[in-house]
Predict the structure.
Amino acid sequence: MKVTVTHLDGMKFEAKTPKSSFIIDCPVISPIDYFLSGIITCSATDIILMPKNQDKTVTDLVVDGEVLRNEAHPCKFNTLHLTYNFNSDADDTMASRWVMASLETYCSTINTIRDTTKITYSITHNGNLIKENEALISGGASSIDMGQIESCPS
């Protein structure tokens, strides 16, 4: 995968991928907004494609993402909570499995941040809250203190 970003003028940039291009217009939409949108879209596409492959249909899908970030630079994500709301012709167990499969296995953007960010999720399926504030099975922003580590002289 390769992306090329070119400065246009002011705070506008053009991002070119092998498939398309788009304009990043800071500060109208910040790079972190695009990043979070990409994370959410990655999982949302899984929630549409997995059921389709099982001859099931998802409708009215809305995924909200809420991030808490460090106040000091580099302002990394500390926590990410995703709220899935959708209808389908599957039962609640299957709907829950789609979300879990996306988060634990298929969504590469979530899997890129899972070791540094605590990720939780909630699911409302066919109008019923079926999961609330569940944490990912693995990952989860380990905060192990390794103490002082002697470094190589520079």
User: Anything to note?
Assistant: The longest strand covers residues 58-69.
